[in-house]
């Protein structure tokens, strides 16, 4: 996805689409995991489900930040011109998506998954 | 060649009398949407007043519980489905071409069709009140209360069929606005120069396209369960009532922002004008709007915090609910900063903006409170939620809407409103609103539940309810005053001078009121502020004379510029269809179908459905270019007609329509997996009832058809008719295999949700293959007549998209219904 030019208009929604996909994946993943193999509530947040969801959250956040950097670099290229508007905006949208991913995923650290 | 005013009037003429039903101009259709929305608003408001009269005193017998149930259901339904969104979409349809420098929307006839669907759907829904059969299960129609067991009459059917019909209008308007904003902007209007209102409407229309299909699916499933006995929401047969809640709120929460964003667009348009300086933070606002559009889709479960979802899942939605306040706050700070840095004028529209800022911020803050799970549990289903919801919806939508109506009144009628009457209207409404709903927060905190038709004296709710009722009637007086102002100004209002509010956007270059074609020649813009009304802030505006476009109308075509979606560079001349009976006739035919389904006259409904398909096909046939028009020489100084290329507005419209269908399909897949994992009595049969060779055959044949179309797009196109007929043959075979699959599968759709949902998915694929096949057959005939050829090939990529989508669905079903369950060993 980093190969899509930073000024391509698809970059504008792309980061938030990734956030939405991550959101569905963690919500769906949690529900399915709990239906299949709910861990002991006494284990608290220290469960394989939390570990997997947490790892996914971290990977997606870092990927989104990398995309933001890619777009911002593209925006400052001398030939960017009118396209700089889209690249800058897309970079900011990717950061917002990264922050949203991290913030929404924070409860994974403290709550048991299936209670 | 010089085009006279008479020529322009002839080309854009709107007939009167009964032929006015053929009018498709965005100005007329937008106005009709708004006037119809106003009518429904008054009906919904009257219902609210009846409810407030009932609740004014304890133990009242002014109305029965049954009538009260119907009133609160219809009040919510009317205000959400028949007033708020149609009103804003109507305003969008009226304004968008004027804002972006176009003569009309991209699909004028689709707009007219949407309007009639809305009108007929609304009337069907409202007729239930006259027949004393109004829906009474709440505007969210929760199952099992709305199921045939607990609501055996036609009440819920009126809702399900009427609202679905209205939603067609919403989706068509969404598609039309999206494509128009992306493809019909005037020369030079790049994305970075687009008015903020266009950004807001663009995001809203994308949200409509994705947000409405989950509810359309839910309504279809519930109606199938009620009328056909299929099992989707019945626990005993493997369904789950919570599936309805998910589908409803997947639509319902974005809907709040779908209503809020266009209204916020009005705020972002008005504040710079009245602050007399450009908006501060244009980019931040665009970013905030896009972010809001997305995050609002991740909040739906906060309406379901009490249904027993694990706390971790609740926490995801709780955080997302708080996150959405951030982009909203960014907008509010940008508006305040603009006011702070400018020289604000307190004209009438600004009064309503002031009201918006106060009321909406308050409603937003109680929204953050409700995002907190423990607090949400505490006030769940109390009047606190009712108060919050009205602060958000009236504050976030109605206040800016009235501000926008006052602002654009000179454009609508050419006259100015009365400041005196307008101020009275505002203050009565503002005071009445806060008296009603501020106190209602406390009524809720004191424990009064929603949706109860009366209460005992002595519980502490007597005085607050009386105050709320008095406030309600003061607010109604405010509405009356505003209406009086609007009615009287048409006759007694001062004639509006040019650009009366000193606006900076293109609509204020028009005559007041504007002609049907908006612009005599389409302008070139080189700034976010085409009108230099902000001294010292138009530094990017060039003083060079700019070229103007499409001055000639002597050819008799209705035309507007087609642009590159990013740069705004003109790439084509879009030929717009003129007045027509087709939208009205097709909508009427669908309304008849809707009524026949409602009264369960199924043989007649089948005939009506066939007629509707025939009429829609005929419309598509006559909507295409006539050869003389399409091949006529065009002005060499202007961009070529869109018939000559492959990237037509029709292709964008088809893609947008398929995105809506894709959203419905995703909702269907969600339903499948949801019931599989969550429904307590879900059962897989011992063997899959599907025959995988048949479904694989369907997928392969659809792939073949899509591949065939791909080859047609590469010239030369000799033997076009024969090639299209071969593709149609492959499509027909796919259709036959699919019918055989459905007939051969031993589906017990009334006994098991598993089989019922399987059937619905197969029928969905059947519909898509059928539509693609029909379009292909029509195209074969068009190719034989020379209406589709090497020179006129713009229709080919549109039909190709239909096949590509059918391919996607076919392979997805093969994977999800057969391969995936087999790999889990459930069969």
Characterization of the model:
The complex is a heterodimer of chains A (115) and B (827). Chain A has one domain (11-109). Chain A has 3 helices and no strands. Chain A has helices at residues 11-37, 48-75, 83-105. Chain B has 827 residues and is mainly α. Chain B is built from 23 helices and 2 strands. Chain B has a two-stranded antiparallel ribbon. In chain B, strand 1 (558-563) and strand 2 (570-576) form a beta hairpin. In chain B, helix 2 (26-55) packs antiparallel against helix 3 and helix 4 packs parallel to helix 16 (582-598). The interface between A and B is medium-sized, with 37 and 29 residues.
In short:
The complex is a heterodimer of chains A (115) and B (827). Chain A has 115 residues and is mainly α.
Task: Describe the structure using short key phrases.
heterodimer, A: 115 residues, mainly alpha, elongated, B: 827 residues, Cytochrome C Oxidase, Chain A, two-stranded antiparallel ribbon, globular
Helix content of chain B: 55-70%
Number of strands of chain B: 2
Q: What structural class do helix, strand and pairing data of chain A support?
A: mainly alpha
Query: In what range is the share of β-strand residues of chain B?
Result: under 5%
The domain count of chain B comes to 3
The radius of gyration of chain A is 17 Å
Distance between the termini of chain B: 73 Å
Query: CATH-wise, what's the superfamily of the largest domain in chain B?
Result: Cytochrome c oxidase-like, subunit I domain
Low-confidence stretches of chain B: none
Overall number of domains of chain A: 1
Biggest sheet, spatial arrangement of strands of chain B: 1-2
Summed up, the helix count of chain A is 3
Uncertain runs of chain A are none
Radius of gyration of chain B: 27 Å
CATH topology-level name of the largest domain in chain B: Cytochrome C Oxidase, Chain A
Order of helices and strands of chain B: HHHHHHHHHHHHHHHEEHHHHHHHH
Summarize model confidence as the mean pLDDT of chain A: 92
What is the oligomer described by this structure?
heterodimer
- Give the ordered list of helices and strands of chain A: HHH
Estimated structural class of chain B = mainly alpha
């Amino acid at each position: 996805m980093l190969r899509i030019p930073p000024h391509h208009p698809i970059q504008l929604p792309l980061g938030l689409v990734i956030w939405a996909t991550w959101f569905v994946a963690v919500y769906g993943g949690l529900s399915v995991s709990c239906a299949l193999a709910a861990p002991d509530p006494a284990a608290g947040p220290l469960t394989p489900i939390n570990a997997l969801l947490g790892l996914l959250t971290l990977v997606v956040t870092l990927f989104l930040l990398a995309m933001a950097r890619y777009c911002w670099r593209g925006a400052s290229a001398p030939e960017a011109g009118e396209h700089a508007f889209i690249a800058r905006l897309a970079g900011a949208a990717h950061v917002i998506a990264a922050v949203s991913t991290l913030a929404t995923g924070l409860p994974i650290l403290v709550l048991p998954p299936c209670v | 060649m010089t085009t006279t005013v008479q020529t322009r009037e002839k080309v854009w003429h709107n007939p009167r009398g009964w032929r006015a039903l053929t009018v498709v101009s965005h100005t007329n259709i937008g106005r009709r949407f708004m006037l119809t929305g106003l009518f429904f608003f008054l009906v919904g408001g009257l219902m609210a007043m009846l409810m407030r009269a009932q609740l004014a005193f304890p133990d009242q017998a002014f109305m029965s519980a049954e009538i009260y149930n119907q009133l609160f259901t219809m009040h919510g339904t009317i205000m959400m489905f028949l007033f708020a969104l149609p009103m804003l979409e109507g305003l969008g349809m009226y304004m968008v071409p004027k804002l972006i420098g176009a003569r009309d929307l991209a699909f004028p006839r689709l707009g007219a069709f949407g309007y009639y669907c809305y009108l007929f759907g609304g009337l069907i829904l409202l007729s239930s009140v006259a027949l004393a059969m109004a829906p009474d299960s709440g505007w969210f129609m929760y199952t099992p209360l709305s199921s045939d067991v607990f609501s055996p009459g036609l009440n819920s059917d009126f809702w399900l069929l009427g609202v679905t019909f209205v939603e067609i209008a919403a989706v068509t308007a969404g598609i039309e606005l999206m494509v128009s904003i992306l493809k019909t902007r005037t020369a030079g209007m790049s994305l970075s120069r687009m008015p903020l209102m266009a950004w807001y409407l663009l995001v809203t229309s994308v949200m409509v396209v994705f947000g409405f299909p989950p509810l359309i699916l839910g309504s279809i499933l519930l109606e199938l369960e009620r009328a056909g006995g299929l099992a989707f929401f019945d626990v005993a047969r493997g369904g789950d009532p919570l599936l309805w809640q998910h589908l409803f709120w997947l639509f319902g929460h974005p809907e709040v922002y779908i209503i809020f964003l266009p209204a916020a667009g009005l705020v972002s348009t008005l504040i710079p004008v009245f602050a007399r300086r450009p908006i501060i933070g244009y980019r931040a606002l665009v970013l905030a709007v896009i972010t809001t559009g997305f995050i609002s889709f991740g909040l739906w479960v906060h309406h379901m915090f009490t249904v027993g979802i694990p706390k971790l899942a609740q926490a995801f939605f709780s955080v997302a609910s708080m996150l959405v306040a951030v982009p909203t706050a960014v907008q509010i700070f940008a508006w305040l900063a603009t006011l702070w840095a400018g020289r604000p004028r307190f004209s009438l529209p600004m009064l309503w903006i002031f009201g918006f800022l106060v009321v909406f911020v308050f409603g937003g803050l109680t929204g953050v409170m409700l995002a907190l799970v423990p607090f949400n549990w505490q006030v769940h289903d109390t009047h606190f939620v009712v108060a919050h919801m009205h602060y958000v919806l009236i504050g976030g939508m109605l206040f800016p809407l009235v501000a926008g109506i006052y602002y654009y009144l000179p454009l609508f009628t050419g006259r100015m409103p009365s400041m005196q009457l307008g101020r009275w209207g505002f203050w009565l409404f503002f005071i009445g609103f806060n008296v009603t709903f501020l106190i209602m927060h406390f009524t809720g905190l004191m424990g009064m539940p929603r949706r109860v038709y009366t209460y005992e004296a002595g519980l502490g709710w007597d005085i607050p309810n009386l105050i709320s009722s008095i406030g309600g009637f003061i607010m109604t007086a405010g509405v009356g005053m505003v209406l009086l102002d609007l009615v009287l100004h048409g006759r007694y209002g001062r004639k509006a001078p040019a650009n009366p509010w000193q606006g900076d956007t293109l609509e204020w270059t028009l005559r007041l009121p504007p002609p049907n074609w908006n612009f005599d020649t389409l302008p070139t813009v080189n700034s976010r502020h085409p009108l230099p009304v902000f001294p010292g802030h138009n530094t990017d505006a060039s003083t060079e004379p700019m070229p103007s476009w499409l001055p000639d109308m002597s050819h008799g075509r209705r035309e507007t510029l087609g642009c590159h979606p990013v740069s705004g560079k003109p790439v084509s001349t879009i030929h717009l269809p003129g007045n027509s009976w087709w939208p009205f006739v097709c909508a009427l035919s669908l309304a008849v179908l809707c009524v026949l389904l409602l009264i369960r006259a199924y043989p007649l409904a089948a005939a009506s459905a066939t007629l509707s398909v025939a009429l829609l096909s005929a419309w598509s046939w006559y909507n295409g270019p006539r050869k003389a028009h399409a091949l006529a020489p065009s002005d060499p100084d202007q961009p070529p007609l869109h018939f000559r290329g492959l990237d037509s507005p029709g292709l964008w419209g088809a893609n947008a329509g398929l995105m809506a269908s894709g959203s419905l399909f995703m909702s269907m897949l969600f339903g499948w997996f949801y019931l599989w994992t969550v429904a307590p009595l879900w059962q897989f049969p011992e063997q899959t009832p599907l025959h995988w060779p048949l479904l694989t055959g369907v997928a392969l044949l659809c792939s073949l058809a899509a591949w065939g179309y791909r080859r047609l797009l590469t010239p030369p196109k000799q033997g076009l008719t024969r090639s299209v007929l071969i593709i149609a043959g492959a499509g027909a075979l796919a259709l036959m295999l699919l019918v055989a699959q459905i007939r051969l599968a031993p589906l017990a759709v009334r006994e098991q949700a598993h089989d019922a949902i399987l059937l619905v998915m197969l029928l969905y694929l059947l519909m898509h293959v059928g539509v693609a096949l029909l379009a292909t057959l029509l195209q074969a005939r068009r190719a034989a007549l020379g209406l589709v050829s090497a020179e006129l090939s713009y229709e080919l990529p549109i039909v190709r998209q239909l096949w590509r989508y059918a391919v996607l669905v076919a392979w997805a079903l093969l994977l999800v219904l057969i391969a995936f369950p087999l790999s889990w060993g459930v069969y």
